[in-house]
Specification:
This protein is α+β, with helices and mostly antiparallel strands and about 280 residues long. Helices cover about 45% and strands about 10% of the residues. It has 13 helices and five strands. A five-stranded antiparallel β-sheet has the order 2-1-5-4-3. α2 packs across α3 and α4 packs antiparallel against α5. The longest helix is centred in the middle third of the chain and has 18 residues. The protein is elongated, with a radius of gyration of 21 Å.
Amino acid sequence: MVDVSPLGQFLRARRAQVDPAETGLLTGGNRRVPGLRREEVAVLAGVSADYYARLEQGRERHPSPQMLAAIARAFRFDADTRGHLFRLAGLSPGDAPATAGDRVHPALLTLMDGFPRAAAYVFGPAFDVLAANPLGAALLAPFGERPSMVRVVFTDPGAPAFFDDWPAAADAVVDALRRNSGLFPADPDILAVVEDLADRAEFTGRWARQGVGALPRTDKTFHHPEAGRIDLTYQTFDVRDAPGQQLQVGTAAPGSRSEQALTYLGAVTTRVRAG
């Protein structure tokens, strides 16, 4: 029996998540399992049913870019998910090294300190906090110094109360971790966090869905144990000279209570360090 490849696992998981009614196909009759049938994916992609079956079963390991593009269109993949599909097939060599470094350039540290009213931090590919400016460190202080945010979300007992929308935070970080696992398949930190959370059903269920996505620009609400509710708008930037690192900056609306809460956290942190 042929072992199912990572590409095959990905296609099978994503096929199960497609609502047949949204594809425009005539899909009458009872269905024993959710999602599309292999034959239906083949029709949507314009490939033979036998070829698609072989691809999903791991018996076809060298699809052409044109074939993958057709399958991506059939699934209506966005850019991140399409890129992940191609990387699983080995068709995006050279996009990034197999592993990423964890050294934060001094110039980036200086840049973060230039955001005195924003919470800023640098993530590694496994979403470990590699560095933070004072407000970023103060915001994440309940989880310790340089926390692993994936582990925080799924193992820290305070996480569900800290994140106002914990399910959305969990979905986003797992999808982003999946994307990075395609970019950096040999990264030891990614491999370690996936292994460490293998007994956490909330993580493994999301990981099995094979969702893929970069961290978006988004609004987040936190409930900080010292400062209370804090609403921030986040922007995420790839660090060009350190593949795998991302700078995330969260800002509060000027004059808002959230801005006051950040200022308070910064003042408390300064007093603690001075003392």
